[in-house]
Amino acid sequence: MSEYQNVVGGRLKLKGKPLDVKEGGVKKKKKKHRREESSQVEHGEHREGGSSELQGDAINEFSEADKMGEEGSSQADYDHLTPAERRYIEQKQKIDIHKLAKVADKSHRDRIQDFNQYLANLSEHYDIPKVGPG
Fold it and tell me: Which ranges are annotated Basic and acidic residues under compositional bias (predicted)?
């Protein structure tokens, strides 16, 4: 019994704020939506009860604004890059375009024939070469 005299009984007490698991559990954060502003404006126009022509024009304006925003965002993406990073990205895009053009140029049959020719030209590494006079 002397071995167990120094043991502390009871539950483990943790420091800090206790979790409110009984009340409602751990609550997840709500996701923020990017297009809340544009959707609020659209809903506002629908609530006013304007004519359908005006609503169609407003939607067209939003789609054009989105297109302009996308073009501007691609330009904004390059603003924070260093010149070396810009050159790297442009070079990588050029290489990707050349690779895609090369792959798209050949049909499946041509690719299979080229691959078979490549395999025929390889040395047979699994053959055991004869070494010695035996």
Answer: 17-26, 35-50
Distance CA 92, CA 87 (A): 8
The answer to whether 50 and 43 are in contact (CB under 8 A) is no
Cβ neighbour number for residue 106 with a 10 Å cutoff:
12
- pLDDT score of 50: 47
Burial 21-53 (b: 16+ CB within 10 A, else e): eeeeeeeeeeeeeeeeeeeeeeeeeeeeeeeee
Name the one residue in this structure whose structure tokens are 């704020």. 17
- 82-92: per-residue pLDDT in tens? 999 999 999 99
Q: Is 132 left (phi over 0), alpha (psi -120 to 50) or beta?
A: left
Domain boundaries, the chain: 39-80, 82-120
Dihedral (CA of 116, 117, 122, 125) sign: positive
